[in-house]
Every structure is written in C-alpha cells, then in structure tokens.
Write a structure and sequence with these properties.
nine-stranded mixed beta sheet; mainly beta; about 5% helix; single chain; elongated; 4 helices; seven-stranded antiparallel beta sheet
Length: about 425
C-alpha cells in the first residue's frame, strides 16, 4: 500500500496532506477527506514505517489491525513473492497508535521489527498473536546499516501487565495469555538525522526488536476474536487539515470545482464592537435573501450550507467571548458535525477573542488564513469557507484592522454537481 506526501498542497489542495488508498485504516483518522474519483483519501497525521522481517515460516500473510478500526484489518502479502524462507513487510503506520498482528497460518518463530523514519520518542504498540503456551526470548539491538555491526544488545524482560509496557521506554514486553497476544512498544530512542548512511534510521544506527518464539502448536495464529472488543478504541482526530493558500500568496492556484449551474447569493456583514457606530448594513449572514443574525450575542455567527443543493443545514452562535467551553464546542462542530462538501459562512459580532483558540485552528481547516484569522479583540471578521476535499476559488475572508470595519463579503457562489 503506497502513499504520497503532498508537501505544498499543489495536488490535493491540502498543505502536507498524505494520500492513501481509501481502505487503508492503518493511516485513517476521522479528519481524512475522501476522494472517490481517486479511490483515495487525503489525511494529515504523524506517519512512519515499520520494517518487519519474519521467518520460520516466511510464507504467511500478515494481518495488521489498528485498535481504532478493528473491523477493517489490512492484509499484507509481503515483498518476497513465492516460497520464501524470509518475508518482509513494510507498512506505513500512524505513530502513537496501537495495533495487533495476526497471520493466516502459524505465527513465525522469528520476527525483527525496525522503526523506520521514526523521530526520537515516536512509538507504536504492537500485539503479536501466538498460540497458547508460547515462550519468548526478546532482545533489543542496534545495527549499523553500512558496516552491519550490531551493538547495544540487551535482553528485554517481561512486564507485570500491559500498563507497564505502555508507560515504559520500550525495554519490556507483556504476554496476555488470555488473548494470545505478545505486546511490545516499538520506540525510537535517538534522533533521526536523515543522513545518507542512516537514511531511515537514527544517528546511532537502526534500532530493532527481535522476538524469538517457541511454540507447541501449529494452529493458525489469528487472535482477532479474542483481541476485540477488549483492545478496541474509538478513532481520534489526526493533525489539522490545512488548505493550500489562495492566488496572490505565492502558492499554486486553488483547485476549481465542477459547478451545476445553480448559485447562492451571499452577503456577510461582521461588526466588531469598535465598528458598531460606523455606517453600513447591519451585522448578518444573508443567504438567498434570508438573514441569519447573532441575536445580539457576542462571538461567532455561523451558517452552514449544503454545497450541492444550497440548503441551509445549520445556524449556530458560539459565544467564545463569554463562555470558555464555546471554543471547544465550535471546533468540534466544524470538525465533526459539519458534513463534507459544506459551505461555511462566519462573521464576528461584538468580540470573539477572550476564549477563542482551538476554534481558530478549526477555521483554518476550512479556509481561514493567517494573519487575518488572528482577529484582534472587538474587531470585525468575515469568512466564506468550505469543508471538503478541494479548495474552491470562491473561498475568501475579510479582516480589516481594528476600527476600520465593518467586514463585508458580497458574492455569488456556484453550487457543485
């Protein structure tokens, strides 16, 4: 399963976005944007690779399951095709997450795990499936890729419980005989420099964990039914999805969307406190002649519109100037409640500044930009944003200097097919 890193956002519309096959739940998170036309998804998180070499046998497929998506295991056939004594698997994984590993035959007697492209203190937790009664000899080794010399060899002891592994530094393991899972924490202890001789390893060499298992059974090592729901977790958000910058900022042109010939006529007027007495229209968001106001409440006035049919799906007011809980509520609303392919209209009334923090990052995920999004207290601010897998050319914000408002956006937006 390959991936593509769009560093500047020129391909996907998201700066730093990673493109994966849409069924790759090793890399997925709830913030990923699906592109059905590519059979792919665009995600942002901390990603790295695991180099795993297995033998005795080396012919079985590996079934890798992320604990947040137990219903979506990923089967890895390996790099060596045909009858091979050794097999290699190099999955891309999300760091800071836990996974279980299963097989379509008996588990291998020997497994070497190398963290590749891990930064210092990056980790993943792996639970390997083995038959009951298996015993283990687990060691930690550093190998120089250039000379092949191994150093820093040490035996890894068993922990009393899984919590000890989770809080530990990677130098212990836990055998859960009730589920048939051997847990190890693969953690990078040294900086990753990117120098040629250590292109994917640390500046000390390639760290690895070597598991040697002695089994008394040839049963198929698939522990899915015992691992879940016991070790299942709820999916958590990845890193913010940042839209690429618009024309005039030195970045690539925004991606244009197909239009269906229907339009929205939109007017957004924002009045910060310092602009209350300035001439001009009243503060409101007006969509096709229907006005939505903040009813005098200070904070963010927000209207959400379905980008396909033009219907208003939500109108909310988030009083971040008065209630600290409103910051998280607004951020959660944008990230989790607003459907994909939605147009986002935002205006500030009075002031927003006292508790607004995470919600400003969430607004950047739908098109807000710095420095404009760093709104001074009692200033005006208006935004036309979009939540989806593209950057339409009609995204805009108006953020006049404090006292120079109101902020006004008047535009016509083409709806999507």
């Amino acid at each position: 399963m390959g991936s593509f890193h769009d560093v500047d956002g020129s391909v996907t519309g998201y700066v730093g976005g990673h493109v994966f096959y849409v069924g790759n739940h090793l890399a997925k998170n709830p913030g990923c944007v699906e592109r059905p036309d590519w059979n792919a998804m665009i995600c942002n998180d901390n990603y790295a690779m695991l180099f795993m070499q297995v033998e005795k046998p080396g012919t079985n497929s590996m079934i890798l399951t992320r604990d947040e998506y137990p219903d979506h295991p990923v089967t890895l056939e390996g790099l060596n095709q045909g009858e091979a004594r050794k097999q290699k698997h190099n999955p891309v994984v999300t760091v800071g997450k836990s996974y279980t590993v299963h097989w379509d035959g008996r588990a291998p007697e020997e497994i070497r795990i190398y963290p590749a492209h891990f930064n210092k203190d990056n980790w993943v937790r792996l639970g390997f499936c083995y038959p009951p009664g298996t015993t283990f000899y687990v060691t930690y080794i550093i190998k120089n890729r250039v000379t092949g010399v191994q150093s820093n060899w040490q035996r890894i002891p068993a922990a009393a419980d899984l919590a000890e592994v989770d809080i530990g530094d990677g130098f212990n393991f836990y055998w859960d005989d009730s589920t048939g899972l051997l847990f190890v924490k693969v953690l990078a202890h040294y900086d990753h420099t990117g120098e040629k001789e250590y292109s994917y390893c640390s500046n000390m060499g390639c760290e690895s964990i070597f598991i040697k298992a002695t089994m008394t059974s040839d049963d198929v090592s698939d522990c899915m039914s015992s691992a879940y729901p016991k070790y299942g977790l709820s999916p958590s958000l990845g890193l913010p999805m940042m839209l690429s910058q618009p024309q005039g900022s030195g970045a690539k042109e925004p991606i244009l969307l197909e239009e269906n010939g229907a339009f929205l006529d939109v007017s957004i007027v924002s009045r910060g406190y310092t602009d209350f007495d300035h001439p001009g229209p009243s503060a409101a968001i007006t969509v096709n002649g229907v006005s939505y106001t903040s009813n005098g409440n200070w904070g963010f006035n927000v209207v959400i519109v379905d980008a396909h049919n033009g219907s208003v799906t939500a109108h909310n007011i988030f009083m971040t100037n008065r209630d600290p809980a409103q910051d998280a509520a607004f951020a959660n609303f944008l990230r989790n409640d607003v459907p994909k392919n939605s147009i986002v209209f935002v205006s500030v009334f009075g002031s927003h500044i006292r508790y607004a923090q995470d919600c400003l990052l969430a607004l950047m995920e739908v098109g807000a930009e710095e420095p404009g999004i760093q709104i001074p207290g009692k200033a005006s601010y208006a935004l036309v944003g979009f939540k989806g897998g593209y950057r339409p050319n009609w995204i805009s914000q108006v953020a006049p200097p404090k006292g120079n408002g109101p902020a006004v956006i008047q535009t016509r937006i083409s709806l999507l097919y």
